[in-house]
Design goal:
The protein has about 250 residues and is mainly beta. The protein is built from 3 helices and 13 strands. The longest helix is centred in the N-terminal third of the chain and has 11 residues.
């Protein structure tokens, strides 16, 4: 984790104390480290492309597109088939050809909670109060082999994200995610690393996710992240199927 940040200018860390006392102090230092609010707010769209690998040699290519204020489209391609999960700000939908379904359909409850979280371009910490999120500082706890500041973030949706923030650079190195679906609690763990600069904003290029307690999960490696790529709103909307074209068309 620390090696990933050796290239960040030292000036970013001047006046950063070794011990933060409040959640807001930690979040402010995190935002400063990754580039500052001015840089973040200049980003209207974010496009990530890379690959997803899992157990048994599974590998898929992926592309995630985010557009403010809360639209997202995720495409996965493997075995010659391309699937889509998306949210247009109102409706979540998917296409899963590997399930024998070629037409779009609405997302299930857990899928909807996940896509709503993915639709937040900045992540839950940035402007957390305006988003209706609540944050508590829970002290320090080891994570990924190092001490970390621990923040509990309760999203407006009710999901709880527990952030473990690096004590040198104040960036997330691990996130615990807890969702309740039909009365059943689901827990996941995500490790973040390989932070790189994208148009003045430092973002993780490596994510490892697994269900809590599992030995294996899935690793996402982004090969490219681009900002302010033109994306039309219709790109995120569910396609209309079964509609006959007008006569003469």
């Amino acid at each position: 984790m620390r090696k990933a940040f050796l290239g960040i200018p030292a000036l970013l860390f001047i006046a950063v104390s070794l011990k933060a006392q409040t959640a807001d102090e930690i979040i402010a230092k995190y935002i400063k480290t990754v580039g500052g609010m001015d840089k973040i707010r200049t980003v209207t769209t974010l496009v990530r492309t890379g690959k997803l690998t899992g157990g048994g040699g599974f590998e898929a290519t992926l592309r995630q597109e985010n557009k403010r204020p809360n639209m997202v489209r995720e495409e996965f391609t493997f075995g010659g088939m391309a699937g889509i999960s998306a949210y247009d700000g109102k409706t979540g939908w998917k296409i899963e050809p590997w399930s024998g379904k070629k037409d779009p359909e609405s997302l299930g409850e857990e899928e909807t909670k996940g896509i709503l979280e993915d639709s937040d371009l900045d992540g839950p910490l940035v402007d957390y109060q305006q988003k209706g999120n609540k944050v508590k500082y829970l002290g320090m706890e080891p994570a990924e082999g190092t001490d970390a500041y621990k923040l509990e973030v309760t999203l407006a949706s009710g999901s709880v994200w527990t952030y473990y923030m690096d004590t040198d650079y104040y960036v997330p190195i691990k996130i615990g995610i807890k969702r309740t679906v039909r009365g059943e609690e689901r827990e996941y763990e995500m490790s973040l690393g390989d932070y790189k600069e994208v148009n003045g904003w430092y973002l993780p290029f490596s994510l490892e996710t697994k269900a809590k307690g599992d030995q294996e999960g899935a690793k996402t490696t982004y090969e490219k992240i681009e900002t302010n790529v033109p994306l039309d709103d219709s790109h995120f909307q569910m396609p209309v199927t079964g509609v006959s074209p007008p006569k003469g068309k």
